[in-house]
Amino acid sequence: MKNVIVVGTFDTKGHEFKFIKDLIEKQGLTTTTVNCGVIGEPLFEPDISSEKVASAGGSTLAELNQKHDRGLGIDVMMSGAGKIVKDLFDEGKVDGVISLGGSAGTTIGTYVMRKLPVGVPKIMVSTVASGDTRPYVGEKDITMMYSVVDISGINSISNHILANAANGIAGMVSFEVPELKEEKTLLAASMFGVTTPCVTMAREYLENKGYEVLVFHATGAGGMAMESLIEAGFIKGVLDATTTEWCDEVAGGVFSAGPTRLEAAAKAGIPQVVSVGALDMVNFGAIDTVPEKYKNRNLYKHNASVTLMRTTVEECSEMGKIIAGKLNMATGPVALFIPLKGVSAIDVEGAPFYGPEEDAELFKQLRENIEDHVELIESDTDINNEAFALAMAKKLISMMEAQK
């Protein structure tokens, strides 16, 4: 019988958790309830007590109550619950997980969910789900459901919201995921709107050669998701055409994938073909969200919600050194492709971000800092040129075949 983990603070939201627990069990599923409440007694007896959760998190309930530190309590309980649920998953006892809460409950619940692999059903009913959910979702497939009203009792609104969530997780868990007729070797590719022609041509070529290509949108979370799947062993080769997330990491944009971007493939030793796609742009939100210090920079309104900022010579220099360092970490075959006539659709002659000086500095630092085991391939084209795209795809295939 399929089992759903119900995790949360049963001392403050016991009625609501009991409501979703009972609905899930009415669907013929079992539940394992994990109590992360610190202060009060739970409304119902949980399967895993808060004392056990605190212990797994490296403390005790008595210590947490004595210190009266809400932040510490959240840290301990989410750490403990994460360890417990991950252990249950490793034992084959987790088919899905559901939680609900405000900012604290969401922090705990989604931390637990991020400990589980992609593909395991995860639903978080949250009062903060209508805002920026990236800190909670990260690179995992967490379904965030806005609670509309606060999670405080069962009323004419929350009755529907919580029932939908409970029935949703029950449906996710109960129905089988169809198997693909043919399992193919999985490849990963990174793409942005301004590198779409390049990656589309490369993807289609690779798929015609029998590979399955997962394309990740280089929005920070996309790069993190790609790195996570590489680390998990799903991905066997990478066409990392769009390394733009380094612009945001260096200059403080909104699409950073963190300082370890480009490390997963290098450490895994899988073939990687890397290029400099969209290293001409830093991403911000609407025009009025651009930091004051950048107001006089070369800005481009991509749409009402996204403003792009052209990277400078200095930023390109820094990124060239960083990316070279990441490629030098490679324990497997790696090739760097440089398009000499533009790194994006708007970095070509006559376009808003055309920057021959900036690009030249980027390319200079890459050339000077990569080590001998990094193959360098330069092309007198822009990144979206068909020949450039196909050359990257063919190089990746040759690397893949050489490893067989």
Automatic annotation (TrEMBL):
Family annotation (InterPro entries): Tobamovirus_resist_UPF0261, UPF0261, UPF0261_C, UPF0261_N
CDD domains in alphabetical order: Tm-1-like
Domain UPF0261, chain residue ranges per copy: 2-176, 184-400
Pfam families given in the database record: UPF0261, UPF0261_C
Annotated protein name in UniProt: Uncharacterized protein
